[in-house]
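Build the 3D complex.
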Amino acid sequence: MKKFIITSLLLSLLSIGCTHDPIEISPPDTRLNWFNDAKFGMFIHWGVYSGMAGKYVGPSLYGIEYTEASPFLCSWSAEWILSQAGIPRDTYKKQAKNFTATQFDGNEIASLAKETGMKYIIITVKHHEGFLLYPSTIQPDWCTSTSGANGRDLIMELLTAAKSKGLKVGLYFSQNLDWMTEGSLGEIPQLYGGKYDIEKNRTYIDYTCKVISEIMDRYGEILDVFWWDIPQINTSQEFTNQLQNALIKHKNYNKRILQNDRLSTLANGDFATPEGVIIQKPERPYELCITMDGSWGYTDYANNKKTRLELLYEITNTVSKGGNLLLNISPKGDGSLHPDALKLLKEIGDYMQINSESIYGTEHSGFTHGQDFGRVTRKGNSLYLHYYVGDKVELYGINSPILSAKTISGRNIEYKKIPNGYKFIGLKKGEVAKVTFSSIIIDEGFPISNKMEETNLYAMSALAEGGLSINGFESGFVNYNSWINLWPDLGWLLKVENPAKYDIYTTISVDREN
Ligand code: GLC
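Done.
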């Protein structure tokens, strides 16, 4: 009896033999050249919340008094602590004294980004808490001037250091949501989750335009990216135009500045920013941003710490599908980084140091599905095989002659032809093979024949419409084929060589909490 075994945490739907069109990322816009080639950037979430490190003791608008014995602890998205704990504005304001930046050195962060192999940095100039990371004259009471950072211009310090090292720079700006400022859009903790009326919103948008102008006065000449956030709560054409004009009509605006797609639901921007999931068949340039531990802002209580392998998977998976990966770091209130984060960045940097030619300047690999051994990136007629899981390296879906197969450091790799692909022998885990073909024609499909007793279809090689995130890398590779899939379809392409009766089995396991 022939058996297929599918193991999963959450299994939705198995589709066999679906067809797919060639991938094309649209349209060549030279403004985006650097962005498309960069592939890897650093995201920095830093603000007053960072000084709180995920813990709050004090009154809550939601009717609770948090005490030392029973504090509010934030394990995810700690930059939302004001909203999560319901902290009153006047109490939250006092937290600014813990935002000291004493250990912050723009040069060190820029060097760290470079050593990790990142090509650009995006830092939060204003997050949903409304605090400005420079001495503002428009908002003098809620900026570095009235914080433990004593009026330092932390943005300029970082941007100039990054620019001097050849990195591109951008600013994250929460234009629609601002819990500390009257009139902001969205749900406001100070209003117990209620919203301001439209007239108040107008006043807030006017204020926000002034802040954009101030930011452009200060940094417009060196900015490469303006990174808006929370589009969903702005569906107004009037506000969209006002905010957009504040940026593009400023004297320091230059067409060079790229915008993401999060200004409002009515603005597309220059590139897409899916959150948390990979676009397997992208239609436009995109950038996926991820955290190292489930929280953008620093917290001592993060419970979803990623490993080196998971992060490498996220990078190569995104890059193999033509996107950029923006990896977040969460400095503490004093600007220092947690040693775990530094260790991970160092490990990624070590990988990039040897293998970066397989990342920068690559294009969509052409494979919509993944590979069981890792991921494939592509440059011209060369495919780069990133090997990090499983016990064999078999690439299905390409049959053109191989001209050469070597590790990036130049060691020859043996290979042999197998049905619908090649098997590579002698590649070690953690190595990348560069395989150059006479031409690249991709015809994906896992070969199945009635001579096979049984075979496994793994999560690593599935196509997940909408996105797939695989977990379990950390457990010594044993578990690497489990996944958490938040979308309806999972599929494998099979190439059935002989008609026969094939039985398909699925093994579904769930963890206790689910
Ligand atoms: C979401 C969150 C925000 C975070 C951002 C990163 O918009 O609200 O906290 O900064 O995602 O993409």
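The longest helix spans residues 198-219.
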